[in-house]
Amino acid sequence: MKYTYLLGLLAVLFLAGCEDLEDTYEDYVGDGPVRYLAKCTSVEVLSGWNRLIVSWENKLDPNREAILVHCEADGYLYDTVLDANATSCIIRGLADATYSVSVAARDKAGNTSLTNDEVRSGRPYTLSHEGVQGYTRGIVKHIFLGDNLVLFMGTKTDKMLEFVVHYTGTDGKRYDYDVYSEGLNTIFLRGVKASEPVVLTRKGLLEEGPDVIPFPDVTLETNVVNMAGDFSGYLQERYGNVDVNRTNLELDYDLSSIEDILYFKDLKKLELGKNRYYGKTKKMSAISVAANRKRAEECIAFMQEVIGLEVVNYGSHYGAFGIPAETPELPQDLVLMDTEGFTVENSIEGSAPDFESYMLLDNDPTSLWETVLEKGERRIYDLTIDMKEVREVKGLKIVQADVSTSVRNYLPNAITIYVSEDGKTWTNPCSIAECRLGVCVGETKLLNFTSPRNARYIRLTVKDTYYGSGSNMRAGCVLGDVLPF
């Protein structure tokens, strides 16, 4: 009986403890329990032309009555209400800004699903967008030559849809030319009225955006000069300036191309390789890339056609361009200094252990200044010629080493010159800091100073050249002669 009583008491206590949990807190939650709608997930925002394209996924929820798309930025607020089953939305007419975009489900009472981890940002493409402003022109360079226009084209991608040049012809008619229609790298448009605007219109795609964008029109300027760095650098070295009004032009050294001769509208004569002295048996290549060589041929032929340019080609340096001429000889009136007693000091002690001063001053490029080949970083050498007294120097005859062994792979391609009267104050006598050298075995360069200089010391700076690959790569430098005149 006693045990029966205890079991009954436990049963009563158990039933009391099974009261609905909701009864324990419903007096404290106001209107009762809160039920959230199923969230919209996988929200994505794509940038379009003055618009954003929003997409998402809906989760099953019978209480969803609508979709609310919220788009906000500083000073801008866009709310769009859509059908309950909508999965995408386009927000149009947007100004340039970065917008926060969220998508929420909404029920009849106006309650919305949570969006805290599904907020995305997006920025529409507008005229102010740097991607629009910096979009490729397709035309890398353009040059007007009289009533003609030359276009140098860049590579076309699948996002570049429409590139058209609009111009007025010399016949007064309007023309529209699709610059990629013929797949040309260089385009020669004849009969273009340069006094009328020439306008490039472009349409294309940006990044992952789905919209075809009409990019801002580009008016091709008639007087702009945009020379390649190596071409303008050569002009500065050769002439001391970059003057496109020259009527005679001499090109001597390796250039990526010579298309920039088109800027010289008054050019009468072009001389190729005139100042390279490397012997009749040497074979040289001034333009090694086949595409650049083809472009050079086209540009020279065009100038011959349009302005009657005379082209004289010395030796084999520039191939078959123009009228062939004999390989140039050194000027007959060149008078070299007597270098007896001159000395040469090398700034890196021990780098050329077999060198003696006369080897660089004897007018014999088979006796060399030759460094020990090393692994590691490129060395920079200062070779200082002491002429023992102040003399007037007009320039230098610099000769590459005349060798047949693998040493020929270490010929320097540039040299820097400074002169001094006292060995303390140094000045650059050239029109450019670093002067290029031809790298043909035994090749001679006549380096004329901008004006005669009084000097006792001449300092030459050259750098190692690397040759080989992997563990066999070595750095070294070799030079035949340096003779003042």
From TrEMBL:
Residue ranges annotated for the F5/8 type C domain, each copy included: 325-460
Membrane-spanning parts: none
Name of the protein in its database record: F5/8 type C domain-containing protein
Gene3D superfamilies: Galactose-binding domain-like
Pfam family, one: F5_F8_type_C
